Amino acid sequence: MKLQVLTIHENQKVQKLIIRGIRDLINYKNLEPGDKLPSERMLSEKFNVSRSNVREAIQKLEFYGLLKSKPQSGTFVANIGVTAMNGMIEDILRLDEPDFKSLVETRILLELKTARLAALRRTEEDLKSMEEALQAYNKKVMNGEDAVQEDLLFHLAIAKASGNSTMNTFMLIIIPGIITNFQKHHVCDAGLAQRGIRDHQAIFDAIQDKNPQLAKQKMKEHFKELYNYCYNLE
Fold first, then answer.
1. Residue pLDDT, tens place only, 119-164
2. Distance in angstroms (rounded) separating the CA atoms of residues 197 and 141
3. How far apart (Å, rounded) are the C-alpha atoms in residues 222 and 227?
4. Is residue 68 classed as helix, strand or coil in its secondary structure?
5. Of 54, 110, 111, 180, whose CB is crowded by the most CB atoms within 10 A?
6. How many CB atoms lie within 10 A of CB 224?
7. Domains in the chain: how many in total?
8. CA–CA distance, 186 with 192 (Å, rounded to integer)
9. Which domain holds residue 213?
């Protein structure tokens, strides 16, 4: 499994284009709460972007409560007035791109929660996904290869295991910026990659043992060096 990676600037530009397009579509067609949007395929063709780009934009609008996706049914306008929706979309479009420190702070706060919830709610399938990502990360690190994506796939597997769809969606939203900045600042060259093998295993073991407090503690220890490194960047 691979993550599609755009630079922060590219990702922001494409997302804003799609979000504006969805807003204009809602206004032009006078869509009301509960009305269905065109499919991801149709939107990708209309905006000339990939379906994954459309999916990310929809997830972002869903995160802010403007759209609602229903499995096997599609994406619908949420129960919010057109005036309020347009105002909120304008606010979303004006949001500044988060800096690396902001991304790291947000990620740490989020993952302390997901680790705890994952230990309480994880399934055998969740454990399998985590273990596969763990092994892929270990293999790349031991071979001296860049393992940023495998690292984040492990953490995404934990977010999914938390059983909280909003936290999972939030992780998916901030992941592209994290990957780009990790590569830009050579985070994995800072001695964190080798330590990550031990840290990941400890987190996995705590989640497997259904020990929420230990899972949270091990995640906190895992991020301590990253947090310190981040604040030494200038």
1. 999 999 999 999 999 999 999 999 988 888 888 899 999 999 999 9
2. 8
3. 9
4. strand
5. 54
6. 12
7. 2
8. 10
9. 100-230
